[in-house]
Design goal:
With 551 residues, the protein is of the alpha+beta class. It is 48% helix and 18% strand. Among the domains are: 111 residues, Beta-Lactamase, CATH 3.30.450.20; 39 residues, no CATH class; 169 residues, Histidine kinase-like ATPase, C-terminal domain (Heat Shock Protein 90). GO terms for molecular function: ATP binding; protein histidine kinase activity.
Length: 551
Amino acid sequence: MKIVALFFPKASIGTYLVAMAVAIALPIFAFVALLLLQLEDNQRSTLKRETAQDALALSRIIDRQLQDMATTLRLLSSSPELENGNLASFHERTETALRDNTLFVIAVDRTGQQLLNTRRAFGTPLGKTANMTALEAVMASGRIEASEVFRGRTSGEWVYNVTLPRKNDPVAALIITQDAKDLGKLVTTEGLAPGWSAAVIDESGHVVAATGPANLEPGTPFDPRILPALTVSRGVFQDETILPHMLLGYAQIPGWSWKTVIWGPIAQASILSTWRFLIIGGVALVLVAVLGAYAVARQVRTTIRDIADMANRMGEGHIVSPVETSVIEANQVAIALSNASFDRSQTEDRLRFVMHELVHRTKNLLTLAQAMMRQLAKQSDSVESFRAAVADRLEGLVRSIELLTSEQWGGVSLRRVVDIHLQAFPQSREQIDISGKDFVLKPDAVQNLGLALHELATNSVKYGALSVPQGRVRFEWRDLKEEGKPDALLRFTWEEQGGPPVTEQPSRSGFGTTVIKAHAASAFRGTVEIDFRREGLLWVLTAQRATLERE
C-alpha cells in the first residue's frame, strides 16, 4: 500500500488525467527523438561514406592525368630522334605534338642540366632543373615519379613534374611539367554540397592544386595537424577542435605519392530544422494533451460533483431525480441512485408502518397475555398448575408470532397456520383430517385462530378424541352464502369422534372454553356453537370471510 501511495498519491482527477496525458505524450516524444537521433546517425554515416567516395573519385581523375603524362613520357622516350641524339628534331616534334596542350617536356643529363625545354626555343641557353631533389629521387628509384609542387625557374609559376629516368646518354631523364593552375582545372567541387573545397596534396604536404571556399594557393602547406592522421589509403577525418562542424575525406592516389582531399561543413540545416520542428511539435503536443485532459477532467469533475450531490441529498432522506451528464456510465449511476432513493423512501415508509404495527400488536399481545393470565389465575388451584397453564398458552401464542414474523407480518396461509399449531401434538397428527380451500389469513386472524386451534387440540389431547389411539378429529372449513347477506361467510368445524364417551357437559367454563367460544366469536365478529355430544365435541365457528382473509 505504501508503494501504491508513493506512485499514486491523493490528488484530483484533473491531476491524474493531466499526468496520464503527459505520460502518454512524453514516451511518444522520446521515441520520435530516438528515431531522429538514429536518422541523424545514419545521415552522418552516409555523409562520411559519400565524402570518402568523392575523395576517391577525385583521386582517380588526378591519377588518370598523371598516368596520361607517364604514357606520354614513355612514348617520347622511344622516339627515333631521341635515340639518334637529334635533340633539335626531337624538340620540334615534341613541341608540335604538345602545342594544343598545357604540358611541356624537358630533357636533362645526369647532372640536372637542361638539354632542351619546349617552353623555350631550341638552342636557348638553359640552366639546371629547379627541382634537383625530385630528379635525384627518380634516378635512385629507377621508376616514374611525380614531384612536389615548386616554383619553376623558366616559367616563374608553381609547377609539378612527372619524371621518367633513362639509362641512355646524353639524355638521362625526360621530364614532363605542367603549371599547377592548369592541373587545378581538373580539381572541381561539382557535385559537392555548397561550402565544400577540394585539393591535391603532394608528398611533402603542400597543395598542388585546390578549389572551393578554402581558396588555397599552390605551394601552401596543408594543415599539419591533419596530415598525420591521413595514414590509410582512404577514409574520413573529423575533429571538432581542428575542423569544427566539418568533415574531411581523403584518398591516396594509387601508385603515386599524392593525396586528394575534400572537406566542408556538415549539412545540419535539415537536421536542425527537424529537431526544431520536433521540439516545437512535441511541446505543442504535450500542451494539447494537457489542455484536452484538463477539459475532460473538468467535465468528469462536474459529473462526479453532481453525482456526489445526489448522494448527499439521498443521505438526507430526499427522493432525488437523476441528473443528465455527458458520461453514459455516470447517467447509469445517477439513475441507480435515483431508484435507490425511491426504494429507500418506500423502505422507510414500510419500516414506519411495521414499527407502528409492531407497537399496536405488542400492545394487543400484552393485553391478551394479561387477560389470559388473569383468567388462568382464577381457575388455577396452585402455582404449578398456573405456571403450566400459562406456559402452554404462551407456547401456542409464540407459534403464531413466529409464523407471522417469518412472513414479516404480512399474513399467512390458513393451511400453514393449522399445520404449525398441530405440530405441537405430533403423536396425534395422523388422527386429524383437514380439508378446505386454502387462503391467506390476516395477521390478527393468524393469532386468534391459532389460539383457538391450540385450545381445541389441547382439550382433545387431554379429554377428547386425541386422548385415545382410535379417536378421530375432522377439521374443515367451507364457504357459506346466506340469503340477504352480500358478504361471504366461512364456517369452521372441529368434530371429534371415537374418544371417551362424554357423559355430561362441563359444569364450569374455563379459560379454554372462553377462548374457543367468547374470544373466537368476538375476534371474528361471528358465532360459535359448541355441542358436547356423547361421541365427541363439536365446535362450529361461523364468521365473515372479510374478517379473516387478507386482501
